[in-house]
Amino acid sequence: MFAFLSRIKNGIIMAGISIRYMLARPKLLFFPLFRIVLFSLYVPLFFFALFYGFVGIRPLLINWELSKGVASALILGFLLLWLFIAVCFSFFIMLFSNVATVDYLWDLFQGKKPSIRTSLGVACKRIPILLAWSAIFSGVRFLISLIGGDKDSSGLRKIVAGASDVAWAAATYFVVPVISEKRASVADTFKQSYQLMKERFGEVVGVAVSFNLVAGIIFPGIFCLVAAIMNYLYDSGQGERMAIDFYHYPHAKTILITVGFITLILRVFITTAQDVFKAAAYSYANGKPTGPFTPERISESFETKK
User: Fold this and answer.
1) DSSP result, 199-252
2) What is the DSSP string of 102-126?
3) Which of 104, 166, 201, 216 could form an S-S bond across to 119 if both were Cys, CB 3.0 to 4.6 Å?
């Protein structure tokens, strides 16, 4: 238990090192901004396509004169398919950006002059396998969600879902660096990632928890800070009620949208910071330069195999 907590503490230190490394190299900020732009374009396009897709399928259902139950099932199937496609493309945007980031970082680590265009070119060459992995990650995510069930599901189901999520995260931790390094099939990519984690490292839980912890506290932290400031500025004697009913504040919706957008930017930034660590850990496993991290620091972040 103490060893696990120690790895979490060390992982938080690694997150800080990664963030400082990024801030010291402004060109690295292109990749999180690139991902945000892609998401900003993708989300409205998805809802636009969903709306017109539903408008297009509705007359067909009417002309087919289907029963209410069958029509409802088809509509539900259409919505689930659209949701799966949406999740797939979300994973694709993330993986595409991650692969480009890792390729750029390796040039930095080795003292070369990196090129954003070259790194994006590497990611473009990996589009087929990135699409395949996007579908796989989406399918696994849906499967784990089904296992976990809703809030009323049994504790055993939630434990199984949580354990499955952790095992999957560990087995696929180095998928992005493997894809970035060379072209390979989905099976070979998974095998190399799994073997590397199995042979060189014991687990990735401490590191993953550390970065997710940093990312997870961003929204509630910003929201509480904003709520406290607004309560101080606009308190009209209502006290606790104003602090709880945040939407009663002037311009509350605008504030929430702004906080949400800032949170998205920071979470993407933290995800990119984790790419810095992944690139260094993969380089460490292959005996290459590890950038801002010492080999000792990287080995302390995992349960290293002896």
Assistant:
1) HHBS--HHHHHHHHHHHHTHHHHHHHHHHHHHHHHH--S-THHHHH-GGGSTTH
2) HHHHHHHHTT----HHHHHHHHHHT
3) 104
Length of the chain in terms of residues written: 306
What is the sign of the dihedral through the CA atoms of 159, 164, 167 and 169? Answer: negative
Beta partners for 201? 304
The Cα–Cα gap between 264 and 83 comes to 20
Q: What is the pLDDT of residue 63?
A: 59
SS3 304: strand
pLDDT digits (tens, 9 = 90+) for 26-37: 888 899 888 888
Of 196, 194, 188, whose CA–CA distance to 171 is shortest? 194
Structural tokens at position 222: 């910003």
Q: What's the pLDDT at 104?
A: 95
- Spatial CA neighbour of 10 closest among 175, 205, 193: 205
Higher pLDDT among residues 219 and 103, named by residue:
103
User: Which pair of tokens denotes residue 26?
Assistant: 């402004």
Average model confidence (pLDDT) for the chain?
78
DSSP, collapsed to helix, strand or coil, labels residue 201 as strand
Residue entry with tokens 């095998």: 191
pLDDT of 120 higher than 80: yes
- Give one DSSP letter per residue of 22-66, joined into a string: HHT-GGGGHHHHHHHHHHHHHHHHHHHHHHHHHHHHHHHHHHTT-
Which tokens sit at 3?
């060893």
Structure tokens at 160: 């199984």
pLDDT tens digit sequence for 136-165: 999 998 898 888 877 667 778 888 888 888
**pLDDT band at 218; cut points 50, 70, 90:** low
Structure tokens at 159: 């434990």
Exposed, middle or buried by CB within 10 Å (0-12, 13-18, 19+), for 151? exposed
> Could you give the 3-state DSSP secondary structure of residue 235?
coil
